[in-house]
């Protein structure tokens, strides 16, 4: 089933694109939610005419999206979270958390355009922000522990000293002989 999208749907397509979807998904979700319309020949002609008339507006939107993407160049989101002694988070870091951290830095980003997996341990990860069709930014996300002593228990390593091999003492030899005598008596 061919559908003309009326808004961006991450993982499916962008606004005014013609996409092929399963009939149930189109009839039961996209069309009732007003996220798309059936791509009939007349609807396709209307879309082409509208795209031709809005070409300069689309270019302006792309330029604005590129400007917003350029703001994020070199930005690293650092999230401090409560962590167990093994480095596992109590909870998780998700796209809402990343959007909040960006807002603290003065960069407003809608959480719906951020794509990432939920983070459940300390480390460095990557989130993708989709500003516009073809304008995406890979944003590094660094998760650190609030209390660094808890997250990484310090294990002091002592150098292994050269240990001389143990020589058998007379006492050890006597024990072996007694054990051998017991084993042979049985």
Structural features, described:
This protein has 6 helices and 9 strands; from the N terminus they run ββαβααββαββββαα. The strands form 3 sheets. It has a 4-stranded mixed beta sheet. A 3-stranded antiparallel beta sheet has the order 2-1-3, covered by helices on one side. It starts with a strand and ends with a helix. About 5% of the residues have low confidence.
Features of the shown structure:
about 35% helix, three-stranded antiparallel beta sheet, alpha+beta, single chain, about 190 residues
H and E order? EEHEHHEEHEEEEHH
The percentage of residues in β strands lies in 25-35%
Work out the helicity level: 25-40%
* Unreliable residue runs: 150-158
Strand order of the largest sheet: 4-9-8-6
Radius of gyration: 32 Å
Brief account:
The protein is an alpha+beta fold and 186 residues long. It is built from 6 helices and 9 strands; from the N terminus they run E-E-H-E-H-H-E-E-H-E-E-E-E-H-H.
Give the secondary structure arrangement, pairings included.
Layout: E1 2-5, E2 18-20, H1 23-30, E3 36-38, H2 41-53, H3 55-71, E4 77-81, E5 88-93, H4 95-104, E6 114-115, E7 119-121, E8 123-132, E9 135-145, H5 148-151, H6 170-185
Parallel strand pairs: 4-9
Antiparallel strand pairs: 1-2, 1-3, 5-7, 6-8, 8-9
